[in-house]
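batch job 7 of whatever, protein = Elongator complex protein 6
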Amino acid sequence: MVSASVNMFPELNSVLDIKTSDSIIGKSVGISESDVDGTFLIHHFLSYFLRNDHPVCFVTLVQSFNHFNTVSKKFGLDLAAKRNTGQLAFIEGLKSLGEFYTLDDKYDNMARGDNPFVEKGTSKHALAPLYSYIENICNGFTKDRSKPPVVIIDDISVLLSTGYSLKNSISLIQYLQSYISKLEGTLVLHINKGKGSCDEDAVSVWKHMCHFFPLQIEVCGLSSGYCRDVHGEARFILR
């Protein structure tokens, strides 16, 4: 059954064979959704790593901090408190990218009336500023925290829908995976493949993730059709 509940979290850990936080540290986790909402898994991993004292850099491209904090409080976790202690760094992805763009090319781009979220073929910006921002945060974590950092991104398909290219979206994933692995940390990426997995670019990104990520979780509608009490199914692949 695909729905978020406190009782589901231990069951997920059992399915994933996660007995301690150490058993998943150093791995990359890919989460895909199609037709049903898979963000309950983001809440699961966010809660799991924070409760196990790992520093978390959480990049959201969809919902606000208040949304995630409200949901987390239902599970007994105060994200605001975690952020105040420095254990949680929260990045509003699109807002940050817009600020990076404005700072770098304020006058030139404003004069042309460019959309800050549409990447030009010759642009030197792409997603490098977002990567650097995440890297700086994780570097700070390694100095201040004893446990390896965790980076969670929800939902990377938003980059594609707002104009960033498939190439640069995949490059961001590759750079992040390489960097986080050097820190022996964990990368968790969520992507929406569209209704019926019809978003070709998002599907291409997911195929890349499947090739390089040892843990993959696919959330989709029931193959057997509609059921009143069960909203979807999840498939787990652990290499």
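notes: Residues 10-238 form a domain with the Rossmann fold fold (CATH 3.40.50.300).
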